[in-house]
Amino acid sequence: MKRIVCVVLAALLFPFVHTNAEMTSAKAAVLINGDTGEIIYSYNENEKLPMASTTKIMTALILCETADLSEEITVTADMLKVEGSSMGLLAGDRVTYHDLLYGMMLASGNDAANVTAVSIAGSVEKFAEMMNRRAEELGLKNTHFVTPSGLDADGHYTTAYDLALLAAFALKNEDFAKAASSKSAVLNYGNPPYRRTLTNHNKLLSSFEGAIGVKTGFTKKSGRCLVSAAERDGKTAVAVTLNDPDDWDDHAELLEYGLEQIKQTRYSPPTSCYNVPVIGSADEYIEIFIEPYTVNTLETADISCTVRLPHFVYAPVAEGDVIGSAEYCMNGEVIGSVPLTAQRNISAYTVKPDFLTVFAENIKHILKSI
Predict the structure, then answer these.
(1) Is 207 labeled as catalytic in the residue annotation?
(2) I need a labelling partner for 65 at 20 to 30 A (CA). Which of 5, 97, 226, 285 fits?
(3) pTM of this prediction?
């Protein structure tokens, strides 16, 4: 059993910034706080549009979530039935999922996306079903996938806002984030495998301080599409433009603006220490401390902290053991969870007390915790 202690922190934060004035040359654009999803700037952010190779954000995310990156597969001719940009795969090549990930994110390889789809799901069509299920799970309400590569197809679309939410979530995956932020990568694939060096198409990784990704895209139908993200001082901004002829300059301005608007504030719950009863030890309690929590946000909001701790714990307890958690929410949405750990060792009885003494002690602790 666990007890739940709720503490509401009324937090006066910085004003919400949300404007529809045009700041880019794009047909649709959005700039969000990567930590909370708050919109900093938007223009036609919910218009359904083709998104070219930014599609590969979802393909790469599913790869990271479902595949063993060290696993090696053999490429077949059927997997390569796709046109456009390529990482240079040929039928018979041996390649790991790790190298397919980097082939998608750096070289924007349509071949890498197709090989990933067929090898994971059995066909492009079945993989698209996986993409759409994942989109639904992530709350992408105006997105539908048909191809894993982003080549134009009827019914293949997203919005700038959905794409920003997807990118912000994907960047929380360590393998995805590492690939998205890599300027180059040395890979080994082929028949037999040999060393190749791929360079990231994302110019912002070299030109914008703090850039951490994410993905470029282009087709004649979609125009230039770009999803970018930058991190400074623990703050993350994510920008998306769809059909933008001046995307590099636009994104540099958007990211700079976003990082300026996001404010970092530390919150301390009114109760910073809880005593959890200990059974089977000379120590009656163990102290659980809650450290101040840093929130990166824009708007005035109520921050709630829900502390989850057990009624009691059994000895022995080792320093660093996770005892419970503190979950922080803003406007009903979870923005972070922090494990609560033991700060010291608690030893069990070295000489076992008689049965009645232990029984009475246990009853005492249980009654106190109810």
Answers:
(1) no
(2) 226
(3) 0.81
